[in-house]
C-alpha cells in the first residue's frame, strides 16, 4: 500500500513545466517531496492540451516513486475547469490554485474538485487544496482563505507575482518580500495550515541555502522551488541534523532536571531555558524523529 508523506513532513515543493516530458519524468528520481505539475505560467496555452493528456500516466509514475502528486491548474475563470477535467483522472493528491485573492476562489475550487471526484469515482474529500497567495489582497486574507474549505491543509506564498503586485524591486536578498513572508507564516499558523515559503528564483546553491535558513528561522518547515537541484539543499536545511537533535535533547534534559528540583528554568550553554524554549526543543525533536521514521519505513 502506498505511504503518502504527510503534508507536515513535506519540505520541498517543486514546480515543473507542464508539457516538458523529459523534465517531468526525471523529477520522480529527484529529491523533492512534492512534485507540482504546473499548467499555469510554466505551460504556454498552446501546450496545455498536451500537458493535460500526460497527467494520468505521469501521476502514476510519480506515485510509484513515492512522491506526493500535485498539480497547479489555471484560474477557474480561464483554463482551470478544462485543466481539472483532465488532470483529476490522474487522482492528484493536491490541487493548487494560482492567484487566490478571495475566499470565494477556494470555495469555487472545492466545488469543482468535488464534482470531478464524484464523476471519476474518487473518494470525496480526498483531494487536498493548495491556495497560492500572489497578491497583496490575498496576503491580508490568508486566514479566511485557508478556513473556507476543510480540504486546505497548506497555503503557498508566491514571489514574482506578489512582488509585481506590490511594485517591489526584486533582488537576490529578497528584502522586499521580508514582511510578506513574516505576515504569511503568522496567518497560516493562526489558521493551522502549513505555510509553504516562496521559491528562491536564482540558480546559485549558496543563495538558496541562505534563503531557506532565513525561512526556517521565521518558522517555515516547507519551501517551494523552481530548480530541481535546489531540493536536496532545501530538504537538508529543513531537516534537523544530528547536532541540532543532540542540542535539543540536552535542553530538554537540563530543563526537566531543573524542574525536578523545583527550579523555574535552567541555564544551558549560556542561555536561560524557560518553558517556550523547552517546548521548541521538544517540537524539533518530534519533527526530526518523524522525518527519520518516515524515511526508514519508506523504500528507496
Structure, briefly:
Pfam families: HpcH_HpaI. The chain is of the alpha/beta class and 300 residues long. It contains twelve helices and ten strands.
CATH architecture of the largest domain: Alpha-Beta Barrel
Can you say what the CATH homologous superfamily of the largest domain is? Phosphoenolpyruvate-binding domains
- Based on secondary structure, the structural category is alpha/beta
Tell me the number of helical segments per DSSP (H or I, 4 or more residues long): 12
Low-confidence stretches: none
What would you call the shape?
globular
Strand order, biggest sheet? 1-2-3-4-5-6-7-8
Rg, nearest Å: 20 Å
Helicity range:
40-55%
Into how many domains do the coordinates divide?
2
- Share of residues in strands: 5-15%
Helix/strand order, N-terminal first:
EHEHEHEHEHHEHHEHEHHEEH
Q: Between the first and last Cα atoms, what is the distance in angstroms?
A: 15 Å
Query: Which CATH first-tier class of the largest domain would you pick?
Result: Alpha Beta
Q: Return the average pLDDT rounded to an integer.
A: 96
Largest sheet: 8 strands, parallel, barrel
Q: Any idea of the CATH topology of the largest domain?
A: TIM Barrel
Number-wise, the strands total: 10
SSE map:
Elements: E1 12-17, H1 21-27, E2 34-38, H2 48-64, E3 68-72, H3 80-87, E4 94-97, H4 103-120, E5 128-133, H5 136-139, H6 142-147, E6 154-157, H7 160-166, H8 178-191, E7 194-197, H9 205-218, E8 222-225, H10 231-237, H11 242-260, E9 266-268, E10 271-273, H12 275-297
Parallel strand pairs: 1-2, 1-8, 2-3, 3-4, 4-5, 5-6, 6-7, 7-8
Antiparallel strand pairs: 9-10
Helix pairs in contact: 1-2, 11-12
